[in-house]
Amino acid sequence: MMKKLRIVDTTLRDGEQCPGVTFLPEDKVKLALALDKIGVFEIEAGIFDRKTEGREYLSEIMYQKKHARISLWSRLNPADVMEACRQKPDVIHIAVPVSYVQIYSKLNKNKAWVEKQLMDCVEIADNFHVQVTLGFEDASRADIGFMIKLAAQAEKMRIKIIRLADTVGIFTPVRAGKLVKEIRSHSSIMIEAHEHNDFGMAVANSLEMASMGAQFIDCTILGIGERAGNCNMYDFIHACESHFDTGIEKRNVLKIEELLSGIMRPDRRNFL
Amino acid sequence: MIRIIDATLCILDDYNLTREQIYHFVELMGEIGISNLQISTGLYERLEGDLPDSMTYYLEMDAVSYMNEAYPNDKKIKYYFTPKQKKREREIPAYQINDMEEPIRIVPAAENSLQKVTGLDKLLLGGCSAGLEALKKKFELKQLILCPENTYHCATAIATLFLQNKGYAVVSTLLGIGNKASTEQILMALHVMERYMVNQDFKSFSRLKCWLESVLGEQISPMAPVLGKRIFYVESGVHVDGILKKYSNYEPYPAELVGLEREVILGKHSGKGSVAFYSKKLHMESSLQNHTEDLLQLIKEKSRARGTAITEEEFIEMAGRYEIHDEKA
Fold first, then answer.
1. Cβ-contact B157, A205 below 8 angstroms
2. Is A22 part of the contact surface with chain B (CB cutoff 8 Å)?
3. Taking CA atoms, which of A146, A179, B20, B297 is between 20 and 30 Å from A97?
């Protein structure tokens, strides 16, 4: 029997971060419902920010979806987490910067600050009874010791899933697989793989992470996303179907690719 | 030693490349540090044997040419890829193997000789360790030239893994055309991860992209790894903020290294940093300093309503309203 693998779609969040790709709220609803229909386990619907896209689209998705979990992405910021929780999604995904580049150079903070913010943010989500998943942002450039420590803390806070985000897309399969193996050897937390395609290895890296025990794989339709994009859902399912069962039919992904191509305005389609 | 043999010219055999196009390509490949090229007999004939000196050449032969001995014998050609057999010193027997389980009889390579394998699309599907072990069981990696194919979008990863494990050489093409691994992706992955060719200038990638676009007669995807025009464009507030502080916060390597430009796009996901960036760029800082938040909301609203990014002209027009308002006040 083939191993089960769950697909997390992030077209509506990371996919939309492809510069110039902008979904209207009704586009997001259409895409989310189509993804729900084909058996995607989780749909990352966006980054909650009332000023950016309002809240109606999310409540519409939550009301109409049948199976998928709907998540909102949030920075490691208690105010943002609180706002996101108020929208009542199934899951809040909190992005935790873990590399020194992100913590010290970008945020001008330190590791103690990250740990403290994490506890505060999770407590807020707990108070709202919203499930939390954590994203280790820039995991491919981070110190493994710090990630293992954070994973242990997360387990204590009853968090069940950690996303390892290859934020700048520099993983090769062996390094990506080793990281999954290392974290799993120190913790029973479940792993979600989030790959970018800067070296054309997003599919291979995701496959290797799945082989090493990651249970969730992040994808986008047509592979859209920041820079060279994310792991392309069709390509990934095509590559993994001899070893894993994602529960998603490839031909149904093609239908959503058509839907997305139709949604994107003609002048935006040439982004792909 | 890492060897990458670029086979782009072979794949484009049917495009009737002119002499000038071929020489230009060879020159650009040299500029990005590639010194091994796979060529075809057709291409050799088009150049009338006048191969540029700067490269090491590998000539790929089809079975008929080989059987009829209808191929050039030229000292400038270092090796000949021959179909499954070796009769002479400089010949390398080439095999097509799609799956390691295939019962193909392969004559083990003699000491100090090479073999070439094309295919192995499925090598990593069951995991890297299993794939690599299966390959090592059948071949001596240091005597193998591997040309992985890309049916499962893993060819670049296979080629990189093979080189990291001391394989003799890989065969790849620009943009991975012909269902191959991609030369530019392998090169940049090794450059970033293994500090390979640490002082090499890769700006000519952008000229190679133009070369390929002119030959193919179509635009390369702006999202294509390494070559895509828009891969260093950035819109979201978090990313713009990070990039403006330090490029390495969100870039795997600097845009300039591969001859590309970074650009801040204004749209639904922009943050205050993007408004500040454009205010500074357009020398409007003083007039807009108290209106960043309002201007950002206008940008987001317009982008959201229209479903597109905001152009620089539109930003100037929006910003102009505040300037006029301030003058009146």
1. yes
2. yes
3. B297
